[in-house]
Design brief:
The protein has five helices and six strands; from the N terminus they run ααβααβββββα. By secondary structure, the chain is α+β, with helices and mostly antiparallel strands.
């Protein structure tokens, strides 16, 4: 009986090792570069320099059936206090449906502007890079474990934090638009935040970003 249990235990360990290797070598790289070409994943984008020494990054991309000017109009009105995030609204917009039309009052963006990242408005992204119809980079700096924002330029950096950028970059491709989304993040203490990245945040971003791509395409097609 003890030998049988030992064999089962060894088989379980071996299976777990194979699964981890498969995820690390095959699935994870594909997840972090979903839809992007090798060139898109390898190149640098505006805003990359905002998080020097990043511990984590991803580059995901899709082609949308509209020129950059039309795609930009949807991106420009993102925010919980504006048009939403076009992803899973129950998770990131308090259950309020994201906008399904272009709203003029939400089209104005300025560098340094805050876009609420939660319905309460207690956390936000800051517009860090703004090149209309080309690049929109949002920056977030969050204390851990409270989830409250902090000013990276207004005092000492907390001992536990996450600083990240979420960049949207548009390139014309004929009459369509190539939308490349680049994320970069740096967090501390890494001994705690790295397991959370691997087990939760990378998967969460993958799921939410794919949903956003899908919903943007649906809105653009409907608007057309």
């Amino acid at each position: 009986m003890s030998e049988h249990r030992a064999m089962l235990g060894s088989a379980a360990v071996a299976s777990a090792a194979v699964a981890l290797a498969l995820h690390g070598l095959v699935l994870r790289p594909r997840m972090l570069t979903w839809g992007a070409t090798r060139g898109e994943a390898a190149r640098s984008y505006p805003g990359d320099e905002i998080v020097p020494g990043a511990d984590s990054s991803s580059t995901m991309a899709t082609t949308l059936p509209a020129p950059p000017s039309e795609v930009w109009a949807w991106l420009a009105q993102m925010g919980c206090d504006r048009g939403g995030w076009y992803s899973w609204d129950r998770l990131d917009n308090g259950g309020r449906p994201s906008a399904d039309r272009i709203v003029g009052q939400w089209q104005g963006l300025e560098p340094g502007q805050r876009l609420a990242s939660v319905p309460s408005g207690r956390a936000w992204f800051t517009v860090a890079v703004l090149v209309p119809e080309r690049s929109l980079v949002l920056r977030g700096d969050t204390r851990l474990p409270s989830g409250r924002p902090f000013d990276p330029f207004g005092g000492p950096v907390p001992r536990a934090f996450v600083s990240s950028v979420w960049g949207f970059h548009l390139e014309p491709v004929g009459v369509d638009t190539r939308l490349v989304v680049r994320t970069r993040g740096r967090s501390r203490p890494r001994v705690l935040t790295r397991p959370m990245d691997l087990l939760f945040w990378e998967h969460a971003h993958f799921i939410m970003q794919i949903r956003q791509f899908h919903n943007l395409r649906a809105r653009i097609t409907g608007a057309a």
